[in-house]
């Protein structure tokens, strides 16, 4: 499913009917604010949504397929490129402001044509814009040649995806930024695959070893469908419909109000998991594949992945006739046997198996992003990844070939989500008490399946709830969770969102 980012003619092309009236107000206030700040109308708005991940958690950076969907909340960048004050020779100007100007102060930069400087050690909101800018300029230079001169831009941003909430505000912002830069420089037919790939790589420039799920969901999603995203042999995204069931199913997206900030906890949480998965791939390769086998370099953040090990192992063994599901089951067995130490492995132990020095190991695996760990839990991480990849296949099988009229259909879907939560909590260790509580409250009140969504350690959860139980589940959360917290009215309103699958990135032209 290739093609270019759609150019919307009206907001009805972008939002679901239930969101239209509030979005219309929001867009017109963005435009009037733009006029107030810059004294002219915007030429266009670039839009990219956040996402919720339905299933396939923490496996995108191991290059296994995932099933997210876009949500209504999004990043909007209103842009004009005309009448921007002259800049020094060899530079162009970026003026960027935010509708929430208290929280996100405005900035002005003169950017050299060929070098977008990003200081990833400072957590600054415009870094996300800059990373999209850098990626888009690289692509434009590839297309137009080295003497291409970028346009100056005036930008007003309005983001409604909560930051640090597991709904991927960062990917929405980076993708919308890259799209805005492409459009500002005259590219109105922006290729979705190119945009996604550049957003994935760009986001790594702001200090997170991210996988590719969020950017894919943000760019490729189509209204009414979830999105099956696979990363090998190349990035592919395919819309998937949820069947009609009785009772009807809804997804609730629910905040824990525990903020998880990857830029602070990356060295012990997210970035460490990426390192552990890559080390597990190298370790399994060293033990299970013939001596001197090298894993293929791939699109994973550290260049090798558990999926790469998977493919190599079956290509070299006599078991390549097994189905994908059987292969994953076999890998789960092999991992349990090969990586038997439940307490984790030291750098020395891993280096010895890989037949490299500890310095070489650090250089390859832990130098790109800082991590803090004495022991690396290779067993648990690999077991989660293979079992989660298997759950995604089973979930897809139910969606595409299951009997949605059978009585236990909903419970089967929900059971897989619950199993994901168990694995995230116990094996991958990326949940937290608050999320666990939200999940068990929901299940007791009628949710079929409840789990964290996104990176975890706080943030958001997703719940598969029959329409006739939504009220009961909401009341249970209020009674047993939210009423015990000190929340603002605004937070209370945003706490529980019924989400329909939304559309992906779009450009909206104002002229
Ligand atoms: P969130 O929850 O948006 O920070 C992160 C990664 C995804 C994926 C999930 C876990 C980034 C930008 N996104 O999402 O790629 O790995 O965690 O499944 O880091
Ligand atoms: Mg993010």
Automatic annotation (TrEMBL):
User: Which Gene Ontology terms describe the biological processes this protein takes part in?
Assistant: galactose metabolic process; sterol biosynthetic process
- Domain named Galactokinase N-terminal is located at 33-80
Q: Tell me which residues make up the GHMP kinase C-terminal domain.
A: 415-482
Q: Identify the keywords attached in UniProt to this record, alphabetized.
A: ATP-binding, Carbohydrate metabolism, Galactose metabolism, Kinase, Lipid biosynthesis, Lipid metabolism, Nucleotide-binding, Ribonucleoprotein, Ribosomal protein, Steroid biosynthesis, Steroid metabolism, Sterol biosynthesis, Sterol metabolism, Transferase
A cellular-component GO term for this protein: ribosome
**Coiled coil ranges:** none
Q: Outline the extent of the GHMP kinase N-terminal domain.
A: 134-221
EC number(s) per UniProt? 2.7.1.6
What family does this belong to? Belongs to the GHMP kinase family. GalK subfamily.
What's the protein here called? Galactokinase
């Amino acid at each position: 499913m290739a093609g270019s980012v759609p150019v919307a003619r009206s907001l009805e092309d972008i939002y679901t009917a239930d969101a239209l009236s509030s979005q219309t107000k929001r867009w017109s206030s963005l435009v009037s604010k733009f006029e107030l700040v810059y004294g002219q109308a915007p030429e266009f708005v670039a839009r990219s949504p956040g996402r919720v991940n339905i299933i396939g958690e923490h496996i995108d950076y191991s290059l296994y397929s995932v099933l997210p969907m876009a949500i209504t909340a999004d990043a909007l960048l209103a842009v004009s490129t005309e009448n921007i004050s002259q800049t020094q020779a060899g530079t162009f100007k970026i003026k960027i402001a935010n509708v929430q100007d208290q929280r996100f102060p405005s900035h002005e930069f003169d950017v050299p044509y060929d070098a977008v400087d990003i200081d990833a050690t400072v957590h600054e909101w415009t870094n996300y814009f800059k990373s999209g800018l850098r990626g888009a300029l690289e692509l434009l230079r590839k297309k137009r040649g080295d003497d291409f001169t970028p346009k100056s831009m005036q930008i007003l941003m309005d983001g409604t995806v909560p930051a640090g909430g597991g709904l991927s505000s960062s990917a929405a912002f980076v993708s919308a930024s890259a799209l805005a830069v492409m459009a500002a420089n005259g590219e109105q037919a922006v290729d979705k695959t190119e945009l996604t790939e550049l957003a994935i790589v760009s986001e790594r420039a702001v200090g997170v070893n991210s996988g590719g799920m969020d950017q894919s969901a943000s760019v490729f999603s189509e209204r009414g469908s979830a999105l099956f995203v696979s990363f090998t042999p190349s990035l592919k995204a395919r819309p998937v419909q949820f069947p009609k069931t009785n009772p009807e199913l809804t997804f609730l997206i629910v905040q824990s109000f525990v903020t998880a900030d990857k830029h602070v906890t990356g060295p012990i949480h997210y970035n460490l998991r990426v390192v552990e998965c890559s080390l597990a791939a190298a370790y399994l390769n060293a033990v299970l594949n013939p001596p001197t086998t090298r894993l293929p370099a791939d699109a994973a953040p550290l260049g090798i992945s558990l999926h790469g090990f998977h493919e190599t192992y079956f290509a070299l063994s006599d078991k390549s006739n097994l189905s994908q599901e059987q292969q994953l089951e076999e890998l789960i067995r092999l991992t349990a046997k090969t990586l038997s130490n439940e307490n984790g492995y030291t750098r020395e132990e891993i280096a010895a198996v890989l037949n490299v020095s500890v310095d070489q190991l650090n250089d390859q695996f832990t130098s790109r992003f800082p991590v803090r760990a004495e022991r690396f839990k290779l067993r648990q991480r690999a077991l989660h990844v293979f079992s989660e990849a298997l759950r995604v296949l089973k979930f897809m099988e139910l969606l595409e070939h299951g009997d949605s009229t059978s009585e236990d259909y909903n419970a089967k879907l929900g059971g897989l989500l619950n199993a994901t939560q168990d694995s995230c909590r116990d094996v991958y260790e990326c949940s937290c008490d608050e999320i666990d509580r939200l999940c068990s409250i929901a299940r007791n009140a009628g949710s079929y399946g409840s789990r964290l969504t996104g990176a975890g350690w706080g943030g958001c959860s997703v719940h598969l709830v029959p329409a006739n139980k939504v009220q009961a589940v909401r009341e249970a959360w209020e009674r047993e969770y939210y009423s015990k917290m000190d929340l603002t009215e605004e937070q209370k309103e945003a706490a529980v969102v019924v989400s329909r699958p939304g559309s992906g990135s779009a450009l909206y032209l104002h002229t």
